[in-house]
Specification:
The structure is a single chain. By secondary structure, this protein is an alpha+beta fold. It has a domain of 98 residues: Nuclear Transport Factor 2, Chain: A (Roll), CATH 3.10.450. Helices cover 20% and strands 29% of the residues. The protein has two helices and nine strands. The strands form four sheets. It has a three-stranded antiparallel β-sheet, covered by helices on one side. A two-stranded antiparallel ribbon has the order 1-2. Strands 3-6 form a two-stranded antiparallel sheet. The protein is globular, with a radius of gyration of 19 Å. The N and C termini lie far apart (58 Å). InterPro entries: Sheath_initiator. It holds the Pfam family Sheath_initiator. This is DUF2634 domain-containing protein.
């Protein structure tokens, strides 16, 4: 029977010039589309095409989206994708315990990606029942970004 997915030398599946692989952890950096979380939509160029982000920005977008996506809710994502921050809502725990859980859950979610080397320097600011936090993320390429989010407790 003929192969439904034949592979020949003239078939090119990906442009290796656009990908950078880190041999130590199997990290693959690629490009993505820019997303404006404030507006809740993709960023468009003046010619109405989707704006493309570079490798560092694409990784930062992945990290932010991972924190904002509830784990186990959407079948399209693997069980390693997303965070469990929603589980903190209405638990009535004290602020020190909530901050510790936010730190643990965010670190666990972001370290699931081979591109992430570390998550640290958490800062918390409470506004009533809302906890606004930020943290520094470092990639295996030693690039850093600051991520901010809010958890309603």
């Amino acid at each position: 029977m003929a192969n439904l997915f034949p592979e020949t030398e003239d078939m090119i599946w990906e442009d290796e010039g656009e990908l950078d692989t880190n041999e130590d952890r199997g990290a693959v950096f690629g490009r993505s589309w820019r997303f404006d979380y404030e507006a809740g939509e993709f960023v468009m160029t003046p010619t109405r095409k989707l704006a493309v982000s570079d490798e560092k920005e694409a990784w930062g977008t992945w990290c932010e989206k991972t924190i904002r996506t509830p784990r186990y809710r959407h079948l399209i994502y693997s069980r390693d994708y997303g965070s469990e921050l929603e589980d903190l809502i209405g638990k009535g725990h004290g602020r020190p315990l909530l901050e510790s859980e936010i730190r643990r859950m965010v670190t666990e979610a972001l370290m699931a990606d081979a591109r992430t080397e570390s998550v640290d320097q958490f800062q918390f600011e409470w506004e009533g029942e809302a906890c606004r936090f930020s943290c520094r993320i470092t990639s295996v390429r030693d690039e850093t970004e600051l991520i901010e989010s809010v958890v309603m407790t």
